[in-house]
């Protein structure tokens, strides 16, 4: 049995759940973090059904609350858990023109997608550096590379994750540590993201890839210590388009994909 532990936020569904499966398949103890305990219990049931004997710890935390990262870290410390792999998957979006969307929702989005990610990275990275071992997977998105009208705040949070991750990756090289950090940038993925973001009736929601394919490719890059994963051909095409097309054209494309009126 593997004696290592992985902590995955946003683990009750979607990419987070599929990443938890990958760790469980390799005999990691998995610490599943999400807001709702009943959804965590269902995720644990499915993982136990497929991988018998895996040690699963359920920690319901709402990462939109500023105190949650500190409390989560304190809880894993109190349980005596050494976190060998941290996956910052938790995140959500909101769709619509910025002038029309709900400010409270977007501030909560910034808290989850940016502040909690930075806070948890700070807490667990220091422990990893002290023992010179550990892996961190940060969830970006294809929108990390493009302006995205109708998801302006969400795309900006993912652009932050891109910049933050690449800067810390460089710092880790300068520190000559065995600790690695990987950025996973999925394309439009078949999860409940579009439903939560009120984007079910957009073109983007109709053209998605499987969460399992995204997670497995991202997991492999993480285990290899790679810097970035662009899972599936869809992500690679989107990324290379961002390199050759001007931002104004990219914004027009994204508006057509994300505006609810575009069916």
TrEMBL record:
What's a single GO MF annotation on this record? oxidoreductase activity
Keyword entries, A-Z: Oxidoreductase
> PROSITE patterns recorded for this chain?
ADH_SHORT
Gene3D superfamilies membership? NAD(P)-binding Rossmann-like Domain
- Domain of life, per lineage: Bacteria
The family this protein is said to belong to: Belongs to the short-chain dehydrogenases/reductases (SDR) family.
What PANTHER family does the annotation carry?
A: ALCOHOL DEHYDROGENASE
Q: What is this protein called?
A: Short-chain dehydrogenase
Look up and give the organism this protein is from: Hymenobacter sedentarius
